[in-house]
Design a protein that fits this description.
Blueprint: H1 3-34, H2 54-60, H3 63-94, H4 101-113, H5 116-126, H6 132-140, H7 157-182, H8 186-194, H9 199-210, H10 212-227, H11 231-236, H12 248-258, H13 262-287
Helix pairs in contact: 1-13, 2-13, 3-4, 3-7, 3-10, 3-12, 4-7, 7-10, 10-13, 12-13
Length: about 290
């Protein structure tokens, strides 16, 4: 690589590096430093002092943190496989050369670009005991459905949030899978047709292997987004009822901004970040990623 090419590449990388430093590395470094202090959102008259590892010891004995982490894992285990599989199915459907396929691509993607707060408010009305979902279920069951207050019912609240989250996010993964599908050479399928392969065999031996890198990206990115579960919980249930929808992000928000304990909130953030990073690395190792040799 000559010097001119290196300069061009550096000029393209510079904005990304600046943004990465400003919005990821620097905030994490600040959180790491603050996690060893008793820093408050509103400074106390006694000032800020170093408390060593006491914040981290508190995290290990924080029942609400472990409750939230359990709910985060539950959310990831349910939402990520369903959302990934549904996104792949939708991508295959809209990739067909059919009438109105572009309309359906747009239709499925619209929820992704809408503000989560707005979506959460709308779905809160849908989940109301007198809302559209209960009315629909009552209609299709001939009146046998008695109606459920989904968001105030301990058994239904978290599944209700999961369903809404899957609906909201599936369009983003669908577009990624769609790009991967359109990158598969048509000659592969033509050769399979000549060999007499059916649709399932073409999907299993051509589509899935060719989408390995895409699937790896979708699973890891969806997992990270799922662990960040916050807005819909804050708006729809605020962690209730009886902490049945409580999450780590909500706990960090409560500690740092409601109780004004920035030091402890930073310690929670660091621990949560390391957990997500570890899970992402494990996923990356297990799923693997094939590099194209040029």
């Amino acid at each position: 690589m000559n010097r001119s090419n290196g300069t061009v590449i550096s000029s393209f990388l510079a904005p990304a590096v600046v943004l990465l430093l400003a919005f990821m590395i620097l905030p994490f470094a600040m959180a790491f430093v603050l996690s060893f202090t008793n820093s408050r959102l509103i400074p106390s008259p006694r000032g800020t002092s170093n408390v060593g590892l006491s914040n981290y010891e508190k995290v290990m004995n924080d029942n609400l943190f472990w409750t939230g982490l359990k709910h985060n894992f539950y959310f990831v285990i349910i939402v990520v496989p369903i959302q990934t599989a549904l996104a792949l199915l939708l991508a295959i459907l809209v990739n067909q050369k059919l009438k109105f396929s572009k309309f359906f691509r747009t239709f499925y993607f619209i929820p992704t670009v809408a503000a989560m707060v707005t979506i959460a408010v709308v779905w809160s009305f849908l989940y109301h005991p007198n809302g559209l979902i209960n009315a629909f279920l009552k209609t299709i069951t001939g009146g046998y459905w008695g109606g459920v207050d989904f968001l105030n019912n301990k058994a239904w609240a978290f599944p209700a949030i999961m369903a809404m989250s899957i609906w909201q996010g599936v369009g983003f993964q669908m577009l990624i899978f769609l790009a991967g599908l359109q990158d598969i050479p048509e000659s592969y399928y033509e050769a399979a047709d000549i060999d007499g392969a059916n649709d399932w065999q073409k999907f299993r031996f051509i589509t899935l292997p060719q989408l390995k890198n895409t699937t790896t990206f979708v699973v890891i990115s969806t997992t990270i987004l799922a662990f960040r579960l916050f807005t819909q919980v804050l708006v729809m249930t605020n962690g209730g009822p009886q902490n049945s929808t409580y999450t780590v992000m909500l706990h960090i928000y409560n500690m740092a901004y409601k109780r004004l304990n920035i030091g402890y909130g930073s310690a929670l953030t660091v621990v949560f970040f390391l957990i997500i990073l570890t899970i992402s690395l494990i996923q990356r190792y297990l799923l693997g990623e094939e590099r194209e040799v040029v």
